[in-house]
Specification:
The protein is mainly beta. It contains two helices and ten strands. It has one domain. Helices cover 7% and strands 44% of the residues. The strands form two sheets. A seven-stranded mixed β-sheet has the order 4-5-9-10-6-7-8. A three-stranded antiparallel β-sheet has the order 1-2-3, with no helix packed on it. The longest helix is centred in the middle third of the chain and has 5 residues. The protein is globular and about 35 Å long. The protein starts with a strand and ends with a strand. 28% of the residues are buried.
Length: 137
């Protein structure tokens, strides 16, 4: 098992993720201040991008499940942030905007990858999987 450790600032509780390849086996994220405040977290391990969706956003699960693919792109609402767009073929797909402090990697580093596994995790486990793409130029 590998461990991801990430802290956005010295005052933020570090997010620790125990991994088994692309899967999340353990994490303290679910009890973190970030999760309690309804903030998602984006993590990378073994080539997969994983979105951790807090319980307070469980109403978003139905919207997420309408997606056919996922795109990471520069945010249109948060300066320096990333939008996670769940493309469902409609004009206005469901989107989650994340600040740089809600990720343990820099999405611009995905520029050279055509596609990657993208998974969504809830406190009860894996919710769904997509083929992900990055739109950073």
């Amino acid at each position: 098992m590998s461990i991801n450790w990430y802290s956005a600032t010295r005052t933020t509780q570090p997010i620790v993720i125990g991994n088994s390849g692309q899967s999340i086996k353990t994490t303290n994220y679910w009890t973190s201040h970030m999760a309690k405040r309804g903030m998602c977290f984006l993590s990378i391990n073994a080539g997969a991008i994983r979105l951790l969706l807090p319980k307070v956003l469980s109403d978003s699960e139905a919207e997420i499940l309408t997606g056919k693919s996922v795109t990471l792109e520069p945010s249109v609402v948060l300066a320096g942030g990333t939008d996670v767009v769940f493309d469902d073929g409609t004009t206005y797909p469901f989107c989650i905007s994340l600040s740089p402090g809600a990720m343990d990697f820099k999405p611009r580093n995905l520029m050279d990858r055509d596609q990657f596994p993208f998974t969504v995790w809830t406190e009860t486990g894996l919710l769904c999987s997509f083929v992900g793409k990055a739109k950073y130029h």
